[in-house]
Amino acid sequence: MRPARVNTARAPLTHQRTGRYLTREQDSGENDAMPSSIAVVAIDAVQPHLIAGFWCKVLGWQVVEEDAEVISIAPSDGAWPTIDVLAVPERKTVKNRLHFDLRADGVATSQELERLLSLGARRVDVGQQPDVSWVVLSDPEGNEFCLLSRSVQEV
User: What is the CA radius of gyration of the chain?
Assistant: First the structure.
């Protein structure tokens, strides 16, 4: 059973890519009651152990549950959302419609890029312009994700 989430005071929201503060109109606060929370992000994988291991290394997470069809990974503090890696027979064939945007935390973005590449990430072209401020990567099975240019400390 996963622990209940505690709704703390709202901090000013910023746009994830630009880091700009959202205006009151963009963040109206109408959903303060939070009727839903993201609990799990699911990733399909032909090799679920490979993908779960990759994301554990990328995020510093650990496997928290495992059976023949699903490997669940999460941070050690039990925070949400978690990631479920599901075994599927088919390989990925098209660009993801949903992906992770990561920020370096405690290191320079260039250092984090090198670390991600050493873990098995690959640079990919999904049609992004050459002057974008993020790097598009994929996990070992081709699931795209981005490394944003500004670190956690810079935002």
Answer: 17
Q: Can you say whether residue 96 is alpha, beta or left, with left for phi > 0 and alpha for psi between -120 and 50 degrees?
A: beta
Strand 135-138 relative to strand 144-147: parallel, antiparallel, unpaired? antiparallel
pTM over 0.85: no
Q: What does the DSSP 8-state code read for residue 83?
A: E
- pLDDT, tens only, 19-39: 555 555 555 555 567 789 899
Per-residue pLDDT reduced to its tens digit, 110-125: 999 999 999 999 999 9
- What's the token pair of residue 18? 């630009």
Q: Using an 8 Å Cβ cutoff, are 39 and 27 in contact?
A: no
For 6, 14, 26, 76, the CA distances from 36, given in Å and listed in that order, are: 13, 20, 19, 23
CATH number 3.40.50.10750 is the correct assignment for the domain at 92-155? no
Question: Are 56 and 62 in contact, with CB atoms under 8 Å apart?
Answer: yes
Q: Which residue has the tokens 């598009």?
A: 136
CATH class for the domain made up of 36-91: alpha beta
d(CA 45, CA 37): 24
